[in-house]
Amino acid sequence: MTKKLYLMRHGQTQFNELHKIQGACDSPLTPKGIADAKKVGQYFKEHQLTFDHAYSSTQERASDTLELVTNQPYQRLKGLKEWNFGVFEGESEKLNPKSDPKIGSYGDFFVPYKGEAANEVQSRINRTLTNVMEQATDGQNVLAVSHGGAIHMFTLKWITERLPHITNCSVIEFEYDQGIFKYQKTIEVN
């Protein structure tokens, strides 16, 4: 029997709204971010979707989102944190490099600027989510709230068809069995 992972991006933040680069730095949820997170919580209730385990990035925007979605206890994990963009943090998104189409990411661009490499982010979030799913028992549902860049790197590893667009408060459903994540669908409620 398989386990299910519901991997959710946090709600819209002030930096999202202002088009600022937001990785290791944080900014609060906007009223829209709060409302959208509540809509996801309502979707889960309407579909009788409950979680045996819940996890969040240690960053406030993710834990605040999780607390709006469900009132169950959860664990904060550093492995679910957003990509660290180094000195680009808090700057305009216009400064982001173009994504390398061959690899589907920024690669090592941020490393000389005290940030993380794409493969470091991918390894970190994959290791974290694999550990989380290995702790769950067969048939259990797991909710994890993370960030756009980190989720993108995770999906690059596990989704071979067209990657889903990862909007604020989107939820990507995966089945997990014996070390393999299999994409099921993307849930959008905005």
Automatic annotation (TrEMBL):
Name the residues that bind substrate. R9, H10, G11, Q12, T13, Q14, F15, N16, R61
Q: What is a single cellular component term in the Gene Ontology annotation?
A: cytoplasm
Tell me the domain of life.
Bacteria
Under the GO molecular function aspect, what terms does this record hold? phosphatase activity
Return the Gene3D superfamilies for the record. Phosphoglycerate mutase-like (3.40.50.1240)
Q: Which SMART domains match?
A: PGAM
The signal peptide here is none
- Protein name as catalogued: Phosphoglycerate mutase
Identify the species of origin. Companilactobacillus paralimentarius DSM 13238 = JCM 10415
